[in-house]
Amino acid sequence: MAIALNTLVAEADRYLNAARIADYCPNGLQVEGRPQVRRIVSGVTASQALLDAAVEAEADVILVHHGYFWKNEDARVVGMKQRRLKTLLTHDISLLAYHLPLDVHPEVGNNVQLARLLELTIEGPLEPDNPKSVGLVGSLDSPLTPVDFMHRIHEALGREPLMIEGSGLIRRVAWCTGGAQGYIDQAVNAGVDAYLTGEASEPTVHVARENGLSFFAAGHHATERYGVQALGDYLARRFAIEHLFIDVPNPV
């Protein structure tokens, strides 16, 4: 079965409420390909490796979290950008990308999906007074030591996170997928026992240590594999088309 590309895009835009979320890049259809869609290939980032794998898989649409045309990006179509766009245009494949709308969605969002993987009960936003809050706060069913929580992350995501061990057991957790280490101050203010994100920076370590907070950096890529899969599955069910997630490994 096939669905019209514009119908697919309209549903994804509607479902993610994309038009109402200010972002650093255009959300939705970034490159237009063939008008009919039978197969979606999803992945975290629209890298050349993902594009090549999608061509091999005979995709009509590539659905990603990290697409193109970021704010302050060089607008010239040269080098790597030229090669990527040439691959899409030569093979008549559409690129569909959602950044913040896919982070914050209450059903298929990266942060909600990570909570399900780690068996965290969501309590609310990390910044309750900020309507644009991306991160979440939640709790574990029973307290865990930092090492035991690290093992849970490792088992769920398939990679061992960087850990800064805090001063006690972990009951309440704040988290925000991707490169959100800067939200650690909000996690401290929220009074949680641990903060989990994708990346770490030099100051993050000191903030965690000096506040007795356990901190986990589980990988930008690894923490953001799940929202795009859930969105692809939703669209596949909605329109009775095929969906294949392709993971291009990334150590960061």
From TrEMBL:
Residues annotated to bind a divalent metal cation: 65-66, 103, 220, 224
GO molecular function per UniProt: metal ion binding
CC terms in the record's Gene Ontology section: cytoplasm
Keyword vocabulary terms for this entry: Metal-binding
One Pfam family recorded for the sequence: DUF34_NIF3
Family: Belongs to the GTP cyclohydrolase I type 2/NIF3 family.
UniProt-listed PANTHER family: GTP CYCLOHYDROLASE 1 TYPE 2 HOMOLOG (PTHR13799:SF14), NGG1 INTERACTING FACTOR 3 (PTHR13799)
Xref: NCBIfam families: YbgI_SA1388
Official protein name in the record: GTP cyclohydrolase 1 type 2 homolog
Species whose genome carries this gene: Stutzerimonas nosocomialis
